[in-house]
Amino acid sequence: MDPPQPPAAAAAATTTAAATTSGSTALLNHLISVDTTLSEYLHSTLKPFLPHFLLLLLELSADFRLFFPISLSLLLAPNSSTSLFLLRRPFLSSLLLGLLLDLVLIALIKLLFRRSRPVYNKNMIAAVSVDHYSFPSGHASRVFFVASIAHLFADDEANLLNLVVWLWAVLTSLSRVFLGRHFVFDVFAGASLGVLEALFAFRFLRFYL
């Protein structure tokens, strides 16, 4: 057992720990402030010049309740002999397992951080219902997972299709900020998570199909 610290040393250690905690909190608050300011600026500056129906269409295209049933239907359809990798069973199986993994992880992280959505999102009529928490963006994680897993499965003949999927992922993620659904850091975190999920699904899940 370590000998007890003198009162002066204990007080100094407590002060140092408090200063470290205070510094970390101040840095986090500064980052949140920058994120909030930047997100509101992008929303208020760019949204008036963008077609609202297109932003809502991008939002709907990445909704889990639409995306998952379509992917499941394609998996169950008799298309095993197709040459298009997007319709092959290994890709679709990995896609579905990854989407379920993403759904669970996003829900857990949102419950952990409980960051509220932007206040300027309150009076907007969404194309689909949304939950109350903002960090991380589920749409961003989902589309970047899809783009990443498609990139990993794609062959040389699917370069153009691969590019279209990546473009869809980027535009959908940006639309989350433009619509006021999320902050910039939410989208960045969601996109990063989606890439990691794709690497995991490609490395581990496809061998058990």
Automatic annotation (TrEMBL):
Keywords: Membrane, Transmembrane, Transmembrane helix
Coiled coil stretches, renumbered: none
Domain of life: Eukaryota
Residue ranges of the TM segments: 94-113, 160-179, 185-205
Residue ranges constituting the Phosphatidic acid phosphatase type 2/haloperoxidase domain according to the UniProt record: 91-202
Pfam families: PAP2 (PF01569)
Entry-linked InterPro entries: PAP2/HPO (IPR000326), PAP2/HPO_sf (IPR036938)
This protein's name: Phosphatidic acid phosphatase type 2/haloperoxidase domain-containing protein
Organism lineage string: Eukaryota, Viridiplantae, Streptophyta, Embryophyta, Tracheophyta
